[in-house]
Amino acid sequence: MKNKILFTIPFFLFLIFYVYTLSKRTSLLSDRDFYYHWHLAKFKVKEKLTPQHKLFIFKDGKIVNGIGRRKWYDFKIKDGISVAKFPIPWNAPSGIYKAVVWHPSQKEREKFLPRFFYIKRRIPKEVKFPLNAINWENTKPMQKVRIPLPDGKKTDWKGIYEWLKILKMDTLLYLAGQTAYFGRSLPFDFPWIENNLKFLGKIVDETKKRKFRIGAWVVCYFCVGKRDENLGYKWAIDYDVKNDRMKKTRGISIGDRKRIRDIIKVLKQMDSFNLDFLGLDYIRPVQGGYELVDEFIDEMDVIFPAHLKTKKERMLYLARQIHKERNFALEDLWNWWRAHRVSQIIVEIKENLNTSKPLWAFVLSWAVGHQHGQDPAMFQDAGIDFFTVMLYECDSEQFEKILKQWKNYGVDKFNLIVGNQVDYNVHQFVEDTPQEFARRIREAKKVFKAKGIFVNDFSRAFWGRKGDYSAFEWLISIHPEVVKK
After folding, report:
1. Do 140 and 58 have their domain in common?
2. Whole-model pTM above 0.85?
3. Does any domain span residue 325?
């Protein structure tokens, strides 16, 4: 018994010493225990730190390379509290990470306790795959539409289903919500073209009757035609490289609060129908987004030259750094922050919509969408369940680069549907364009490990820039049995 007591005394002395040592160390706190990819993580110390104090992030004992190639992060002091921000890196691996306060002095470093946190992925809603779809991206009144059939005859809008059957496709994706201005304003409180919305119930019923699936989407931040100043929107600002000036665009600013409310309103109306999916297109800054420069500077702790006194000067500086100086680090921060802001919009839409339907998004393919403020990992964590990846408007060389970009990014953690556009011009007028169109879908399907394909769109196949080829030649080239090869 005496030996046992003698054995336990050193242990308790060590425990007391260890607890005392910890009590003397300062805690590094975080705003969350876990983060999704769209989060901007915040770490704080409840005291004033010096400029020599830095935040470092480690995983598996190695320093994490962050957005803009950052390896450490400065603490900003406000009200006696020091805060450093860590943008979760593009498609960062899930797992445990460690945040530490670093200082040149080892004694000073040892004053701070590290903070462990977790990066995780949201699990998308279950969708039955494969999903092979053809889009209807047109706002002509459906009652007046005449659909050409393979035998040369024309029929009404129900001819769409004959094509779906011929092509062995299982899903129709239908443009339901779009804002446009051609001299006549849409209603201020509901700025959506009424043609497709009015017809949504009828086309949903007919699609279900014929045992196909149907999804409907809304065009979020792009306006067709001219800007309509009567709708009360803030417009996105882009950079005119040739003339070195800022310009207002036809895109609505992603910082516009009215537009989010309008998007939610139309989605709620769409959600009342028996749709299989709801979708978002142009869920990004359509062009630029430089009107949000000051929010970017503040949230990302970016330092701009002190002589830039006006917002216009700061917009020009940012645009010139990206487009003329090729400042990769700053561009990467800008792209990440825009994707972060769009992800916040997706979260708000999902929370207000409160639907059981899966939500999909059209995303751009070049640079994995980063160039235009999109990111699959961030968007999936924000609430997107599958992606329709647009392989449009690139030549053969650019297309091969896109495949490599996605392969390097990692595609196995996402539900990807790859698609191409029926358009002779954007295939650079190559010989046998329909076969090139189909080849790109086939190649992308392999690399992307895609859960299906889509074609954009029926109306282009019938009335678009088809070149010397018929709708049948374009559409039959993407027959699912061909795509599987």
Report:
1. no
2. yes
3. yes
